[in-house]
TrEMBL record:
Cofactor remark: Binds 2 manganese ions per subunit.
PANTHER family noted in UniProt: CYTOSOL AMINOPEPTIDASE, LEUCINE AMINOPEPTIDASE-RELATED
Family under the similarity heading: Belongs to the peptidase M17 family.
Protein name: Probable cytosol aminopeptidase
InterPro entries: Leucine_aapep/pepB, Macro_dom-like, Peptidase_M17_C, Peptidase_M17_leu_NH2_pept, Peptidase_M17_N
Source organism (scientific name): Candidatus Marinarcus aquaticus
Limits of the Cytosol aminopeptidase domain: 318-325
Length: 474
């Protein structure tokens, strides 16, 4: 779907369809011309409620309140209706606060129109459709917001494509190839390291997780370095292109959807794509640990003790807690090779416990710096993503002590699994960076099993919008 921003006063009545957002369920509002018909159709104007009136060629859609979320859901719903027709153009007017509503309309439309058809053998002929957003003033300022929102939403969709691709079509080498494409397109520096590098540089935790796979693990490092950057940021992503659980094999029902265990890494790729295109004035490093967790004679085992890059030893009691092992070495790699870091954030579909604890819509944010955590939560909400902060404490920290190594990869308690995973990672954050680090557990929202809002079934691209917002706020 093509999106354009137009001056409302310069061009009129040239669109096939008019989309009308019905605010606050107010069917008496000025802009509603088909009042009687809507009443007869039992249209109430609730969220995700839309009707297409072919006679007047209008789509009415409910928008329960004038907020980013409701506007984005409303336009996504309307766009989906528009996509069921053969009409070529549709228009929608910006709401009263034009700049606020513009972001929601652009992002909601692009995210809502997303479909993933790669594996459908019948290729439907796509109708080229266009949605025109009509503004009444400040076209110059609005066009900046428009362009920015397009970049962000398209980066989210790029990430969704990566994550939705099956594990046999998207393994570590392919992830590196996609990263190289992003680097080339945006003029970024890139390094890709394989298994030899991991062994030589004592990244034995990450190396061991990928040992039983037929696909070699890849450590991907992208850098965006504008002139005179104001800050230096490191973004790290868990890129498990498949998580079978390893020898602590997942039960069948839990294994399905584990192609999405690369969501953190794919989000980092999407973030770098967006950051470079937005030309943010900060230096950003994107580091992805791309690994496949499989079984086989060469698999790492419960009872192994692995030594991470910083020398800490890890007792393995469950090979399904593999993401934290990959991230441990990636965190060390970042802190060893990048000097004077201002912030270091990691993104991972790390624990089922996060999903149980906060629900499938919400990201759990952890770290040692409360102020930074709350800033991240508020940026997420501002950007249209759900997030909450989870608290560390000294007792849960003790739960990952090991009898025979420095730390254990699973806790000795059934409770607080998202937090104990975060505390495990804290072992690999160096003292000077403790306050600069945040951990984002996106296990809940990264992959959508039942469509919600503007997210169809499949990958959501969680983490990108909140991070762009946070980077702008820092
Ligand atoms: N990738 C999973 C976590 C996950 C679960 C992500 C559900 C998305 C949806 C992770 O590697 C894992 O298996 N974690 C274990 C940890 C446990 C063994 C301590 C889990 O959450 O059960
Ligand atoms: Zn796992
Ligand atoms: Zn995993």
């Amino acid at each position: 779907m093509k999106l354009t921003l137009f001056d409302k006063n310069s061009k009129q009545n040239e669109y096939d369809i008019e989309i009308i957002l019905v605010l606050n369920k107010d069917l008496e509002a000025k802009n509603i011309k088909d009042r009687a018909l809507l009443k007869n159709l039992n249209f109430k104007g609730g969220d995700e409620e839309a009707v297409f009136l072919p006679e007047s060629q209008r789509i009415y859609v409910g928008c329960e309140e004038n907020s980013y979320e409701c506007i984005a859901i409303a336009i996504a719903t309307a766009v989906k209706k528009f996509q069921t027709t053969q009409f070529k153009t549709a228009c929608v007017e910006l709401l009263e606060d034009e700049s606020e509503s513009l972001k929601a309309l652009v992002e909601g439309a692009i995210l809502g129109a997303y479909t993933f058809k790669k594996y459908k053998s019948k290729k439907e002929k796509e109708v080229k459709q266009e949605l025109v957003l009509l503004a009444s003033k400040d076209l110059k300022k609005l066009s900046d917001i428009f362009n920015e929102s397009v970049i962000i939403a398209e980066s989210v969709n790029k990430t969704r494509d990566f994550v939705n691709t099956t594990p046999d079509d998207f393994y570590p080498k392919i992830m590196a190839k996609e990263a190289k494409k992003i680097a080339k397109e945006n003029d970024l520096e890139i390094e890709v390291y394989g298994q030899k590098y991991l062994q030589k540089n004592k990244m034995n935790a990450m190396y061991s997780v990928g040992r039983a796979s037929r696909h070699e693990s890849k450590l991907i490092h992208l850098s965006y370095k504008p002139n005179n950057p104001k800050k230096k940021i490191v973004l790290i992503g868990k890129g498990l292109t498949y998580d079978s659980g390893g020898l602590s094999l997942k039960p069948s029902d839990f294994m399905v959807t584990m192609k999405s265990d690369k969501s953190g890494g794919c989000a980092v790729l999407g973030m770098l794509n967006a950051i470079a295109k937005l030309k943010l004035p900060i230096e950003v490093h994107g580091i992805v640990g791309a690994v496949e967790n499989m079984i086989g004679g060469d698999a790492y085992k419960p009872d192994d003790v692995l030594k991470a890059r910083n020398g800490k030893t890890i007792e393995i009691r469950n090979t399904d807690a593999e993401g934290r092992l990959v991230l441990a070495d990636c965190l060390c790699y970042a802190q060893d090779t990048i000097k004077d870091i201002d912030y270091i954030f990691d993104y991972a579909t790390l624990t089922g416990a996060s999903v149980v604890g906060v629900g499938e819509y919400t990201t759990s944010i952890m770290g040692n710096n409360s102020k930074l955590k709350y800033k991240a939560v508020s940026s997420a909400l501002q950007a249209g993503e759900y997030a909450t902060s989870l608290p560390f404490n000294r007792f849960l920290r003790k739960a990952i002590k090991s009898e025979i190594a420095d730390v254990c990869n699973v806790a000795n308690t059934r409770y607080g699994g998202a937090i104990t995973a975060g505390l495990f990672l804290d072992n690999f954050v160096y003292d000077e960076n403790k306050e600069k680090w945040l951990h984002f557990d996106i296990a809940g929202p990264a992959f959508v099993e039942k469509a919600w809002g503007y997210n169809p079934h499949g990958a959501s691209g969680a983490g990108i919008r909140m991070t762009i917002e946070l980077l702008k706020a820092l």
